[in-house]
Amino acid sequence: MRNFSKSKLMALRQCPKRFWLEIHRPALRIESTAAEARFEAGHHVGEIARRLYDPMGEAVMVDVEGQGFAAAIQHTSDLLQAQQPVFEAGFAAGGALAFADVMLPSGEQPLEWRMVEVKSSTRVKPYHCDDVAVQAYVARTAGVRLSGVAVACIDSSWTYPGGGDYRGLLHENDLTQEALAREEEVKCWIDRAQTVSALDQAPEMAVGPHCDDPFECGFYGHCNQHESQATYPIHWLPRRGARLKQALDARQITDMRDVPDDLLNPVQQRVKHHTLTDTVYFDSTGAAEDLAAHPLPAQFLDFETIQFAVPIWAGTRPYQQIPFQYSLHTLMENGEVLHGDFLTLDGEDPSRRLAMALVADCGDRAWPIFAYNAGFEKSRLRELALRFPEHAAPLLAIVDRVVDLLPIARERYYHPSQKGSWSIKAVLPAAVPALRYSDLAGVQDGGMAMDAYLEAIHPVTSLERVEIIRRQLLAYCQLDTYAMVRLWQVFNGHA
Ligand code: SF4
């Protein structure tokens, strides 16, 4: 009987076609950047977990990549015999293969083991329960006595004190009962895996919500090319709530043309109408009235942020969005446009310096400060005010001046090329065709900005490369705020 890895069984839980393709057509899989980032974050959390669970350096890590499966499983068995704490402990039994992140001896006789799976998420998710059920089944079938099974997640409320002290980063969730009670279920998954893997062809499975749940599937491009494509797909309808999704699923509607108007709210009806008639919606009077409430001079602000599963700067929390850059345009009453910015790539915490520079650049005037989807900028400003009480008053004064340009765009403007999105990257090329993010060299979106920042602060990155990244980041963030200036002008009839 073939042994299936835990990850293969998890793929089967998501979709039998995915499982079959992973076994028989793995070359068709394309991993997304998000998936790669998740692996990277998981890797770093794993490293810290090993330090936390083994402060005395007594544990041994099984090297499955270097040794191969058979040797790794034998090595694990030898280490357990020697009552040694083990990382990446390998087991094969009952038709499955699994590697446990942490195995800790209980110290009692007969010897039992506590198994811990380390996750980079901030809470236990349903698939984690499947995951530990497989781990526990394989280990117990291999003859290991388990005293407990836990999932250690990241505590996003914990603040890193600095100095490499990561005690408190992880919090354990006991899943012993749940994991041990599901052996029969796991056996069914393994039986099903044997059946599906023996099929000559992939099982029929249409793409759907399961392709992203719990993870985006790397075979989506392969599967989707065989699906009939709607001319006006329903995912162009903005903000489809659960009720609308259910109604469309129940009627098997995939094209906007088939969606009854009475299921849609006014904005969705507008998107449908202007998409199907290929016309632009622009309430120029309403847009000008909205903006008249915030007269010139006005400023336009955008942050670029970075987040770490494992914080690297004291005073920050896991996954906290930390601004490392801003761009600030100022539009004067006479039409003059001024620009300022902040960016540091020295690898030190940029927060305090950024806060001080921003306070100086915004000044204590009453000018409005436009942001696009302003809740994000306001949240970052409030977090900076909390971290640096000495700058709280001027930072909170900036919060009070922030005006959101996104609701005005959403209410007053729609071009069919937006395909249901009011992200600035969708609105800008429609409203101001001469300005395009795709014309930028290197960094063209927020994800690329994060990657570029991480590369720039990495110790091995050359100074020449850092300078190239600096120019790309400055150009990208500058376009974000200049885009707002131009939208403001278009909405005010100054195209
Ligand atoms: S893309 Fe969807 S349907 Fe295709 S294998 Fe993946 S989960 Fe299954």
What's this, in brief?
This protein has 495 residues and is of the alpha/beta class. It has helices spanning 6-14, 16-24, 33-53, 64-67, 69-81, 126-141, 176-180, 183-197, 220-224, 242-250, 266-276, 284-292, 351-362, 375-387, 392-401, 406-412, 424-431, 446-457, 463-491, and strands at residues 4-5, 60-61, 86-93, 96-105, 113-118, 146-154, 170-174, 281-282, 298-306, 322-331, 337-343, 369-371, 402-404, 413-414.
Describe the overall structure.
- The protein is of the alpha/beta class and 495 residues long.
- The protein folds into two domains: 194 residues, Alpha-Beta Complex (Lambda Exonuclease, Chain A); 216 residues, Nucleotidyltransferase, domain 5, CATH 3.30.420.
- 44% of the residues lie in helices and 16% in strands.
- It contains 19 helices and 14 strands.
- The strands form three sheets. Strands 1, 2, 3, 4, 5, 6 and 7 form a seven-stranded mixed sheet that branches.
- Helix 1 packs across helix 6.
- The longest helix is centred in the last third of the chain and has 29 residues.
- The protein is globular, with a radius of gyration of 27 Å.
- The structure holds iron/sulfur cluster.
Features:
495 residues, alpha/beta, Lambda Exonuclease, Chain A, Nucleotidyltransferase, domain 5, 2 domains, 5-stranded mixed sheet
Round the Cα radius of gyration to an integer and report it: 27 Å
What is the CATH class name of the largest domain? Alpha Beta
Total helices: the number is 19
Shape: globular
**Can you summarize the main beta sheet?**
7 strands, mixed
Strand content: 15-25%
CATH architecture term of the largest domain: 2-Layer Sandwich
| Oligomeric form | single chain
Q: Provide the domain count.
A: 2
Cα distance, first to last residue?
Answer: 70 Å
In CATH terms, the superfamily of the largest domain is: Ribonuclease H-like superfamily/Ribonuclease H
Please report the total strand number as a whole number.
Answer: 14
CATH topology of the largest domain: Nucleotidyltransferase, domain 5
Approximately how much helix is present in the residues? 40-55%
- Give a list of the ligands: iron/sulfur cluster
Estimate the mean pLDDT confidence.
93
Global structural class: alpha/beta
**Uncertain parts:** none
